[in-house]
Amino acid sequence: VLDDQVKSTFSKRARYLDEQIMAEKKSGVSPEQLKDFHDTFTYFDKDKSGKLNKNEFKAACAAVGEDIADNELENVFKQFDVDRDGLISFEEFISFMSSVAHEGTGYDDVIASFKALAGGKEFITEGQLRSNMDKDDADYLVSVMPQISQGTFDYVKYAKE
């Protein structure tokens, strides 16, 4: 019996390490994020099957700050249930978390954010930066962003650099 327990524990640990290696290679998430995601996944995998059903998936996502509306759950679940088994594996969960982590980080998203802060203009003023950001972030941007004229900055050029 003890031998079976040791084999089972070893097998689970080996599977966990394999999952971590695969997830890190595919997702680009940091080891710390991967550990957090694994801990969350494990906590919500109530039946310890190594997979999450829809309710467990929704709860796990909510626990890490990604609330999925009930009317979107089916589509999100189908999109990330790659093997179509009706469950989300750890690798599939990491794929979802990675996609969420990378949303809003592309060039177009950066430009759109600056444009919104700038009231739709192709430049942003120091006052707009300071009124929408904390002091350290605004100080940094004022020091590195190309200046068009006194107190006016070229966020498009900055985003391309």
Draw up the topology in text.
Blueprint: H1 2-27, H2 31-44, E1 51-52, H3 54-63, H4 70-80, E2 88-89, H5 90-102, H6 107-117, E3 124-125, H7 126-132, H8 135-144, E4 147-149, E5 152-153, H9 155-160
Antiparallel strand pairs: 1-2, 3-5, 4-5
Helix pairs in contact: 1-5, 2-3, 2-5, 7-8
Give a structural overview.
- With 161 residues, the chain is mainly α.
- It contains 9 helices and 5 strands; from the N terminus they run ααβααβααβααββα.
- The protein has helices at 2-27, 31-44, 54-63, 70-80, 90-102, 107-117, 126-132, 135-144, 155-160; strands at 51-52, 88-89, 124-125, 147-149, 152-153.
- The strands form 2 sheets. The protein has a 3-stranded antiparallel β-sheet. It has a two-stranded antiparallel sheet with strand order 1-2.
- A hairpin with a 2-residue loop joins β4 (147-149) and β5.
- It starts with a helix and ends with a helix.
- The mean pLDDT is 82.
